[in-house]
Amino acid sequence: xxxxxxxxxxxxxxxxxxxxxxxxxxxxxxxxxxxxxxxxxxxxxxxxxxxxxxxxxxxxxxxxxxxxxxxxxxxxxxxxxxxxxxxxxxxxxxxxxxxxxxxxxxxxxxxxxxxxxxxxxxxxxxxxxxxxxxxxxxxxxxxxxxxxxxxxxxxxxxxxxxxxxxxxxxxxxxxxxxxxxxxxxxxxxxxxxxxxxxxxxxxxxxxxxxxxxxxxxxxxxxxxxxxxxxxxxxxxxxxxxxxxxxxxxxxxxxxxxxxxxxxxxxxxxxxxxxxxxxxxxxxxxxxxxxxxxxxxxxxxxxxxxxxxxxxxxxxxxxxx
Length: 320
Ligand SMILES: Cc1cc2nc3c(=O)[nH]c(=O)nc-3n(C[C@H](O)[C@H](O)[C@H](O)COP(=O)(O)OP(=O)(O)OC[C@H]3O[C@@H](n4cnc5c(N)ncnc54)[C@H](O)[C@@H]3O)c2cc1C
What we know:
By secondary structure, the protein is an alpha/beta fold. The chain folds into two domains: 2-115 and 240-317, 3-Layer(bba) Sandwich (FAD/NAD(P)-binding domain); 118-236, 3-Layer(bba) Sandwich (FAD/NAD(P)-binding domain), CATH 3.50.50.60. The protein contains seven helices and 18 strands. The protein has helices at 15-26, 60-72, 136-139, 155-164, 184-191, 286-306, 311-317, and strands spanning 2-11, 31-34, 48-49, 58-59, 77-79, 86-88, 94-97, 101-110, 114-116, 147-151, 170-174, 196-199, 202-209, 213-220, 226-230, 233-236, 240-242, 272-274. The strands form five sheets. Strands 1, 2, 5, 6, 7, 8 and 18 form a seven-stranded mixed beta sheet that branches. Helix 4 links the parallel strand 10 and strand 11 (170-174). Helix 1 runs parallel beside helix 2 (60-72), helix 1 (15-26) runs parallel beside helix 6 and helix 4 (155-164) runs parallel beside helix 5. Flavin-adenine dinucleotide is lined by residues 12-17, 34-37, 41-43, 46, 49, 51-52, 83-84, 111-113, 156, 159-160, 243, 276-278, 284-287, 289.
């Protein structure tokens, strides 16, 4: 394992982490980005983005490529495909270990995002990859002329349901409430798509499968009636679970597990910041994630100037 010393270590290379890296490097910090996967984060896995300022329509992966190309101009150190194993944020020098490297950092920006929540019903876990999927872009093409269901009522659920109609012959959209919380413009588009069949006031109770998914049992929340739908795939989009398990004993989390921050992205530990979907933000979008990343990096830079041996002087003297 190699030891590496940085002023600012950024955990996660999605929109928040990439933006933090850009602002940290341009502030003169010796920074590094670590990600368990390729840089880009969640947007690499969905189709179009229509609400990122400056692009009326852009593929998620194309936007992520542009982000990465931008930070590459600044020769920022990247450690892709390195999953974080151990982390100590409490000591003055923070340590973060992957299988390959041990990082010593004066400040840390956590930008590890969130993942789709599971339904927690019978048949879900054991059929992941056999008809249960959390990524329409990754798996949609396997459902050509098949029947699938999307579970959820927010923007992600509705957008993914519409995306799946490119392949599937029927897409059931199952939502536990009467009305959707998704943006009105998305709801209007959904209603014009005749491959989508909307079932409201219903919750999934069991995914049925022999060797792969064959059906979904749903329960009406008004009259408790149970109905079985024959289908080939189930795509749950019922909200997010933050990637904060490794921080529970070190950072203050809100009741849903998101990291609590100030509006300057500071956590309860000095020198440790959180940005993007992983924090207690009112809006989880690409545009807010990149904004958070920028604020966190500037705050980290100010913090480093205040610590005795730190800041930009350390940047000049440290080589890794
Ligand atoms: C289906 C769907 C559709 C969406 N559509 C839109 C849209 O149209 N417009 C919009 O603005 N937003 C959209 N969003 C939301 C948007 O994707 C997020 O708000 C944004 O990606 C948050 O950026 P982030 O950097 O905080 O997190 P992420 O993009 O999730 O990036 C987190 C990064 O951390 C890494 N990571 C996680 N755990 C570890 C670990 N243990 N070790 C190392 N690395 C780790 C991950 O690999 C990932 O690269 C959508 C989300 C979904 C799920």
